[in-house]
Amino acid sequence: MTKTQLYIVRHGKTMFNTLQRVQGWCDTPLTEIGVQGIEGTGLGIKDIDFVEAVSSDSGRAIQTMRILLSKHKNGADIPYHTDARIREWNFGSLEGGYDAEMWGVIPRVLNYANYDEMIAAKTTFREIAEAIYEADTANWAETYETLKNRVLTGFEDIAHRVEKNGGGKALIVSHGLTIAFLMHLIDETNGVRIDIDNGSISILNYENGVFSIEAIGDRSFKEAGLKELTERKE
């Protein structure tokens, strides 16, 4: 059986990413720079053989996957579908506000003076999720357990399906905090401040129901592809 791997891409940079606004279940399209970045990632992985492709059902993830597949040597032949379970976190009534506002509210809910003090205290994903749930006046945010179950089962089901079908590499497009959270669920030493850039790739191995981490937020694929784009223009 072929080794089972998930290549998990964070979607391209969006309007709200650029404006530094909270973007969980709300959605904005990729910017011109965001599209170019994903074109770079796409060229960087164009020769990797993928047995399937899955993105979250958010528009920015779908747009990202379409660009990736358009750059791939066999993109038209790779089976692709969406899965709502690998969406970003739901920030409830905090959605759409400025990042600084949300990261000002959460520390206060957790009785910290500010964001830096909260991070220095090694605040956990669980505590942050519970603070978001408490701060959400619209009652849309998920509990920690609901969030954990959604994210884990989403990625595990993809990996299990690939393994059951003989293994191989699956191309996934998800979201920054969701990817960081998944890395923490697999290895608790990965904290809240994991760096997951737009267009970076995190690679997971999967065998007999167990994930192991090969790479987190790898920018090399994107950088190689952007270099190729630049050389084509010269």
Textual characterization of the structure:
With 234 residues, this protein is an alpha/beta fold. It has one domain: 3-Layer(aba) Sandwich (Rossmann fold), CATH 3.40.50. 45% of the residues lie in helices and 17% in strands. The protein is built from nine helices and six strands. Strands 3-2-4-1-5-6 form a six-stranded mixed sheet. A hairpin with a 2-residue loop joins β5 and β6. α4 (99-109) crosses α6. The protein starts with a strand and ends with a helix. The model has no long low-confidence stretch (mean pLDDT 97).
Give me the CATH superfamily.
Phosphoglycerate mutase-like
Quantity of strands, as a count:
6
Give the structural class.
Answer: alpha/beta
CATH topology: Rossmann fold
The Rg value, from CA coordinates, equals 18 Å
> What is the CATH architecture term?
3-Layer(aba) Sandwich
Number of domains: 1
Give the mean pLDDT: 97
State the order of secondary-structure elements, H for helix, E for strand: EHHEHEHHHHEHEEH
Distance linking N and C termini = 43 Å
User: Which range does the strand content fall in?
Assistant: 15-25%
**Strands side by side in the biggest sheet:** 3-2-4-1-5-6
Helix content: 40-55%
- CATH C-level: Alpha Beta
Low-confidence stretches: none
Instruction: Output the number of helix runs.
Output: 9
Query: Which overall shape is indicated by the principal axes computed on the Cα atoms?
Result: globular
Largest sheet: 6 strands, mixed
Binding site for substrate: 10-17, 60
Pfam family, one: His_Phos_1
Site (Transition state stabilizer): 175
GO biological process, one term: regulation of pentose-phosphate shunt
